[in-house]
Amino acid sequence: MTAEDRHSEWFFQSDYDLEAAEYMLNSGRTVYCIFMCHLSLEKALKGLYLKRLNKIPPKLHDLLYLINRMSLETLEEHLEFMTNINQLSIATRYPLDLREMINKYSVEQTASILQQTKIVQQWIKQQ
């Protein structure tokens, strides 16, 4: 697999996960929708990491770490969103109380997170 193929694979997986996030939202699985949104952004950043640095991305989930390693200049609103979803990913990955998480994020709030994810993902892929 060429370097082009490898970073394209990360972007493909990012798209696939974003589509899965939509399915989760449509079925009312808000916690999993948020989790998949984070995963989509993580994979998009890893694709960009490979494209820019020509290195295999590290096996971690921290979006801000990936941004910093690439010295990626981000819009303030994108950075704020990625900071928030980065924190949410821990709660959705390892919920202390799943029922509480389910009640905390309405379909409307989660739809907003999904929409913001789509915007940021597209921005990452255009870098």
State the distance separating the first and last CA atoms: 22 Å
Counting DSSP H or I runs of 4 or more residues, the number of helices is 6
Task: Provide the structure class.
Answer: mainly alpha
Give the strand tally: 0
| Shape estimate | globular
Q: Report helical residue fraction.
A: over 70%
Low-confidence stretches: none
Oligomer: single chain
Strand content: under 5%
Written as H for each helix and E for each strand, in order along the chain, the element string is HHHHHH
Task: Please tell me the overall pLDDT.
Answer: 94
User: Radius of gyration in whole Å, from Cα?
Assistant: 14 Å
Largest sheet: none
Structural summary, described in words:
The chain has 127 residues and is mainly alpha-helical. Helices cover 79% and strands 0% of the residues. Helix 1 (3-26) runs antiparallel to helix 2 (30-53), helix 1 (3-26) runs antiparallel to helix 6 and helix 2 (30-53) crosses helix 4. The chain is globular and about 45 Å long. The chain starts with a helix and ends with a helix. The relative contact order is 0.17.
Topology (SSEs and partners):
Layout: H1 3-26, H2 30-53, H3 63-69, H4 76-93, H5 98-104, H6 107-126
Protein traits:
globular, mainly alpha, 127 residues
